[in-house]
């Protein structure tokens, strides 16, 4: 463990312009509240509804949970800093943010894979679906996702804690992540950067390839289905695939390249840290008649 003279960092955020900062405060506050409300609605609907008990909705529950937590690791700090003069984050808070962002980000990746597996079994092995995707299997898969996320974020935090800081403490980003932190470290970060690329980068790339292949298999299986069955399956899979592209595109861009930071990095990060958690509930509810029906029944009944 290195002796760090650094007790705090300054997060530059998305912009230095005071006018733009006010706009950022307003826009991201609204986006963040919408994210929380959207994901909370889905979680409560799934928990309270009798009809949404299938594995797909169990996984959707965890996706919404991961989304709400993932955006909470980055958005509130961005919103508060947009209005504050001193954009300070303590060393411990910064390390916590690295851990949490990677934990929930990785959780989201694993849950998306579970959802793809679920759709694959449902569409390609419909008769054995209930035996393959039974309650025990689902629980085990979710536990594996939790453990996998924990291992990934522990590896990230281990690398982050190894970094010695002795110079400037200004992070040119809106949240603490390994790339911007490595730029401040007073050591050669070549090896650590390789480890980051081989950890985060590999998880993103391999997961994306696995998902892509699973969707090709699903499409291949669909050719034997009836027109109505095809339409329904395609509607579900399209919404999954939109989410996968929106989430993995930016992640792969950020984590699978050598240590060069580009001006566009912050905007790309906004996509997967704040955009995806907001879009997921919209995509899954607007394209899913069962969720829409359950929500209407549950919430209109209450009101």
From TrEMBL:
Xref: Gene3D superfamilies: Rhodopsin 7-helix transmembrane proteins
Protein source organism: Mus musculus
Signal sequence, start to end: none
Membrane topology label: Multi-pass membrane protein
Coiled coil: none
InterPro entries: GPCR_Rhodpsn, GPCR_Rhodpsn_7TM, Olfact_rcpt, Olfactory_Receptors
Family named by the database record: Belongs to the G-protein coupled receptor 1 family.
Transmembrane region(s): 23-44, 56-79, 99-117, 137-159, 190-221, 233-255, 267-286
Protein name: Olfactory receptor
Compartments where located: Cell membrane; Membrane
Domain annotation G-protein coupled receptors family 1 profile: ranges: 38-284
Annotated GO CC locations: plasma membrane
Record's keyword terms, sorted: Cell membrane, G-protein coupled receptor, Membrane, Olfaction, Receptor, Sensory transduction, Transducer, Transmembrane, Transmembrane helix
Predominant location category: membrane
GO MF annotation list: G protein-coupled receptor activity; olfactory receptor activity
């Amino acid at each position: 463990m290195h002796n760090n003279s650094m007790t705090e960092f300054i997060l530059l955020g998305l912009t230095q312009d005071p006018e733009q900062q006010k706009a950022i405060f307003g826009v991201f506050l609204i986006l963040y509240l919408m994210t929380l409300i959207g994901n909370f609605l889905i979680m409560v609907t799934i928990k309270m509804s009798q009809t949404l008990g299938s594995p797909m909705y169990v996984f959707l529950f965890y996706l919404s949970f991961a989304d709400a937590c993932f955006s909470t690791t980055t958005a509130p700090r961005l919103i508060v800093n947009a209005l504050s003069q001193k954009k300070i984050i303590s060393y411990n808070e910064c390390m916590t943010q690295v851990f949490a962002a990677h934990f929930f980000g990785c959780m989201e990746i694993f849950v998306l894979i579970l959802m793809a597996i679920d759709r694959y079994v449902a569409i390609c092995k419909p008769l054995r679906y209930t035996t393959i995707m039974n309650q025990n299997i689902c629980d085990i898969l979710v536990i594996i996702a939790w453990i996998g996320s924990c291992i990934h974020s522990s590896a990230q935090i281990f690398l982050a804690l190894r970094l010695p800081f002795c110079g400037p403490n200004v992070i040119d980003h809106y949240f603490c992540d390994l790339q911007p932190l490595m730029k401040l470290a007073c050591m050669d970060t070549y090896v650590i950067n390789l480890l980051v690329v081989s950890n985060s980068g590999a998880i993103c790339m391999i997961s994306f390839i696995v998902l892509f292949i699973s969707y090709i298999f699903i499409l291949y299986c669909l050719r034997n289905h009836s027109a109505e069955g095809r339409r329904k399956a395609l509607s579900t899979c399209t919404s999954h695939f939109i989410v996968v592209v929106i989430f993995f595109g930016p992640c792969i861009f950020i984590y699978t390249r050598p240590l060069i930071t580009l001006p566009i990095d912050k905007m790309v990060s906004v996509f997967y840290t704040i955009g995806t958690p907001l879009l997921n509930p919209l995509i899954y509810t607007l394209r899913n008649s069962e969720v829409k029906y359950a929500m209407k029944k549950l919430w209109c009944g209450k009101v």
